Amino acid sequence: MKIAAIQMRSGPDPKVNLAALEPLLAEAAAAGARYVLTPEVTMAFAENRAGLAEVAAPFDADPQLQRVGELAAQHGMYVHVGSLAVPVEDGRFANRSVLFGPDGATIATYDKIHLFDATIAGLNAYRESDTYRGGEIAVTAPVDEFILGMAICYDMRFPQLFHALAQAGAGLMAVPAAFTVPTGQAHWHVLLRARAIETGSYVIAAAQGGQHANGRETYGHSLIIDPWGRIVAELDHDAPGILVADIAADQVADARARIPALANTRPFAGPQALPL
């Protein structure tokens, strides 16, 4: 199966972002992609919660999302919107990933579970949970002969999520992201390769890249990684574009047979605290 990652430089206006996405989807379809992943915050990369509130539409009536469903049907391929902000009851948003089938119907949705809340000495505190409500359910979905495991950005730092997805049958892990440049330079490649190696899975990571209208700068470098941890395709820059690679289910089976970590997993107690 041929898969594609789309790299974008989304801004705060959903209409502008959709206009940028449409030709990239057409390019992926022309390249023969059966499954296409877009980045985190594809539809609106706003400056703050107030900015999101101005542009985020209800999930069932989002015109850009409806158009992406139409495009999935037009191109006859799976289109996975890496994420968009969806208003929820408490005034915050869900950071929601949406998978459309080749008929344009919604197959699955996933709300980002892990939220980045950090207080670092000398820097302003950053609390993603002030804007977003974390999800609570891990999600897999069928994509032809593969089972897709769904994650978003910061989720990649939590191997237990990917282990659970792999134990549920996932052999292709989707990680749409909007990584900052400093963390991207330090951690992007190694974390994604580790998730592939640990689970014997393909990892596809579609990234935001470059200087955005909201003042943020993201790392880009969209990747496709094989189940042995090898980078098989990369956009080695932060500009918009597409990345295409062929994947094969037998490579997942082969990697898991060579390193049967999933099969060898055992429950354990503890850790036991020993006296000092």
Sum this structure up briefly.
By secondary structure, the chain is α/β, with parallel strands linked by helices. The model has no long low-confidence stretch (mean pLDDT 96).
The residue-averaged pLDDT reads 96
Number of domains: 1
Order of strands across the main sheet: 5-4-3-2-1-16
Counting DSSP H or I runs of 4 or more residues, the number of helices is: 7
Name the poorly predicted regions.
none
What fold name goes in the CATH topology slot? Answer: Nitrilase/N-carbamoyl-D-aminoacid amidohydrolase
Question: What would you say the CATH architecture is?
Answer: 4-Layer Sandwich
User: C-alpha Rg, in Å?
Assistant: 18 Å
Query: Structural class, from secondary structure content?
Result: alpha/beta
Distance between the termini: 55 Å
Question: What's the helical proportion of residues?
Answer: 25-40%
Return the string of H and E elements: EHEHHEEEEEEEHEHEEEEEEHH
The largest β sheet comes out as: 6 strands, mixed
Mind telling me the CATH class? Alpha Beta
CATH superfamily: Carbon-nitrogen hydrolase
